[in-house]
TrEMBL record:
Domain of life: Bacteria
Protein family per UniProt: Belongs to the TRAFAC class translation factor GTPase superfamily. Classic translation factor GTPase family. IF-2 subfamily.
Chain positions recorded as GTP binding sites: 23-30, 70-74, 124-127
Chain's gene name: infB
Organism the protein comes from: Costertonia aggregata
Localization, UniProt: Cytoplasm
Domain Tr-type G: 14-184
Name of the protein in its database record: Translation initiation factor IF-2
Function, as annotated: One of the essential components for the initiation of protein synthesis. Protects formylmethionyl-tRNA from spontaneous hydrolysis and promotes its binding to the 30S ribosomal subunits. Also involved in the hydrolysis of GTP during the formation of the 70S ribosomal complex.
Span covered, complete protein: 386 to 682 of 903
Length: 297
């Protein structure tokens, strides 16, 4: 999480948890993310999420919100961490109940533990006749990871990402875990946060998905993100709707940057457009010099 020493406690408001889904290949990360994106566990919104912008927010029936990083696998997680970005509050680790605890499952567990991010296990594919969730939980216990129904403290839930069984309850457990973290941010200042992904769109120019972590981003703001800068011309949410403002824990795609920043780059807002541009230019110069130097060696 971003350190916000300058914020007075009364300025800090509750924010949604930011969740990454990790796990072994084929255990169901994409299916879970797709199910949550499309499902009617999400209240209050007609029409599903139409855009793949690298992150999306869902609202549960009771009004609580969760933000998902929509890049399954821990590559995104580690790439961001390598750039010093700590974006994830909670890791959902998907394990197929008809398989074993596999190498990438163990890797995901160590990544989450190294980052100090609490884990919620999603024991998946329980619709399959060969599913044996207890075998998975026993395996976890042998790794000193005791889940709740085995008398431990780690949340887990049996789900089927295919039928949707248990997914709502899984999300409720994620929110329970989030409550313990007391996630807060100050929405009443210039925005800062992290780049999730960025690409060049034929027609629209550079499109960057960013996650606002503190403050509120507005159309017209001057952004510095990695080696790129520019004025926010437009912002869209995961439903492709134009929006004017985005507060903490909101993923948003923005138009107007002069390049594609890298996943994990921090962004901040400047009062002065030229200042943002100058810093971006200096950073790209430094990067070029560094790459020339490494080529020589
Ligand atoms: P990923 O590699 O972890 O993203 O896994 P995918 O979501 O691509 O799933 C791998 C395969 O398992 C696909 O064929 C899915 O349709 C299937 N699958 C995922 N979740 C379930 C589930 O809960 N039940 C069943 N029966 N199949 C599932």
């Amino acid at each position: 999480a971003i350190v916000e020493e300058e914020d007075a406690p009364e300025d800090l408001k509750h924010r949604a948890p930011i969740v990454t889904v990790m796990g072994h290949v084929d255990h169901g990360k994409t299916s879970l993310l797709d199910y949550v994106r499309e499902a009617n566990v999400i209240a209050g919104e007609s029409g599903g999420i139409t855009q793949h912008i690298g992150a999306y927010g869902v609202t549960l029936e009771d009004g609580q919100k969760i933000t998902f990083l929509d890049t399954p696998g821990h590559e995104a997680f580690t790439a961001m961490r390598a750039r010093g970005a700590q974006v994830t509050d909670i890791a959902v680790i998907v394990i197929a109940a008809d398989d074993d605890i596999m190498p990438q499952t163990k890797e995901a567990i160590s990544h989450a533990q190294a980052a100090g991010v609490p884990i919620v296990f999603a024991i998946n594919k329980i619709d399959r006749p060969t599913a044996n969730p207890d075998k998975i939980k026993e395996g976890l216990a042998q790794m000193n990871l005791l889940v709740e129904d085995w008398g431990g403290k780690i949340q887990s839930h049996d789900i089927s990402a295919k039928t949707g069984e248990g997914v709502k309850e899984l999300l409720e457990k994620v929110l329970l875990e989030a409550e313990l973290l007391e996630l807060k941010a100050n929405p009443d200042k210039l925005a800062s946060g992290t780049v999730v992904e960025a690409f060049l769109d034929k027609g629209r120019g550079y499109v960057s998905t960013i996650l606002v972590q503190a403050g509120t981003l507005q159309v017209g703001d001057y952004v510095l993100a990695g080696t790129c800068s520019g004025k926010v011309k437009a912002m869209q949410d995961e439903r492709g709707r134009d929006i004017e403002k985005a507060g903490p824990a909101t993923p948003i795609s923005i138009l107007g940057l002069d390049g594609a920043p890298q996943a994990g780059d921090k962004f901040s807002i400047f009062e002065d457009e030229r200042e943002a541009k100058n810093i971006a230019t200096k950073r790209s110069q430094l990067q070029r010099e560094q790459s020339v130097r490494t080529q020589r060696h």
